[in-house]
Design brief:
Strand content: 15-25%
Radius of gyration: 20 Å
Helix content: 25-40%
Number of strands: 10
CATH class of one domain: Alpha Beta
CATH architecture of one domain: 2-Layer Sandwich
CATH topology of one domain: Alpha-Beta Plaits
Shape: globular
């Protein structure tokens, strides 16, 4: 589905911050706030924008061991194993894959000891042949909603193209921060309820949230700002359907580095590649794991070519999977 340059700009702005007002966007794009609102409602009607959510930092909620868990099972037993997995404490999300490791899942646990207990339980399942965990390290910024390239039938506004160097540097510093300070942030019932509401609709009005919780609007605003400042809430974003704008697959990549390679340097170079929407430093069978959204094989070939030019990479494994039906994905909504 083709979208024009203004709609493309609106989507990108709301992927960066779903709470951005129509008035703010209107000033940037040079149209009225009413026109922005109407375009937003039309994007929802078309099924391009399908909701909004927040992305949270699992560590801030006490989950210090989290990541991706792939399992290899008999094709005939996939549904049975998926049902088994989702019942296990710590497994928060599962999906089918089309590779040899044919079930993927996300887990969030309080400690490595809990993770060891989980893997011990999984190994006892007769239908699970192999387990491939990737434990996330470093920054809790693992999804980059606005990195999705939204092409239109015209060029996106010059405002989008002329993003300042200062802003880029600011993003880099933030995303490399290990967010350790969030561990010290004490969450009470009201904080958690605000987060639960926003995880379902991050554009919910503060006034509406205040009425639901029987507190003042000012208190909700102050709590929200503190949650963002402490990096408990990492980002708020509209949720879109990438398939509606032409994305046909996801390329999940697993990168093993040469000994002595600067991981951060390679990580930052990969992050600058087009459509890298998930990127994480991990412990497991590789050093860096990520996902590139692709529209055709040419984009996949281009990504492979760029990987080959990066120094310090020993091996790259790429698996092509069906595209996400929603983006970004609030993987950790259930642990709030």
């Amino acid at each position: 589905m083709k979208i024009d340059s203004v709609n493309g700009f609106i989507i990108k702005e709301l992927l960066r911050d779903s709470r951005k007002s129509f008035t703010e966007i209107a000033k940037k794009v040079g149209i009225t706030s009413t026109a922005v609102r109407n375009r937003y409602l039309n994007l929802k009607k078309l099924g391009i924008i399908i909701g909004s959510t927040i992305l949270v930092n699992p560590r801030a909620l006490g989950y210090n061991c989290y990541g991706f868990l792939g399992v290899k099972v008999d094709q005939k037993k996939k549904n049975e194993v998926k049902d088994f997995l989702i019942k296990q404490e710590g497994i928060i999300f599962t999906w089918e894959k089309i590779q040899e490791i044919n079930i993927g899942s996300y887990f969030a646990l309080h400690s490595l000891e809990d993770f060891s207990k989980l893997t011990e339980i999984l190994r006892k399942n007769l239908y699970i042949r192999e387990i491939q965990p990737l434990i996330y390290l470093g920054s809790s910024f693992t999804q980059f909603p606005d990195k999705l390239n939204i092409k239109s039938d015209k060029e996106i506004s010059l405002i989008e193209e002329k993003k300042s160097k200062k802003e880029n540097l600011s993003e880099e510093i933030i995303k490399e921060n290990n967010v350790e300070t969030s561990k010290l942030f004490k969450l009470d019932k009201i904080d958690l309820e605000i987060m639960r509401i926003l995880s379902k609709n991050s554009r919910s009005s503060f006034n509406g949230i205040a009425k639901k919780l029987s507190v003042s609007t000012v208190q909700v605003i102050n709590r929200y700002e503190k949650l963002k400042e402490a990096k408990v809430i990492i980002n708020s974003s509209v949720v879109i359907n990438p398939q509606k704008i032409g994305y046909t697959a996801n390329a999940m990549f697993y990168i093993t580095l040469e000994i002595g390679t600067d991981t951060n340097e390679v990580f930052n170079k990969i992050r600058n590649m087009s459509n890298v929407i998930i990127l994480i430093v991990v412990i497991g069978d590789c050093n860096i794991f990520g996902t590139i959204a692709i529209k055709d094989f040419q984009e996949l070939f281009e990504a492979e070519k760029q990987f080959r030019t990066l120094k310090g990479i020993k091996k790259v494994k790429i698996n092509v999977n069906p595209p996400f039906s929603i983006w970004p994905i609030n993987f950790f909504a259930s642990i709030i």
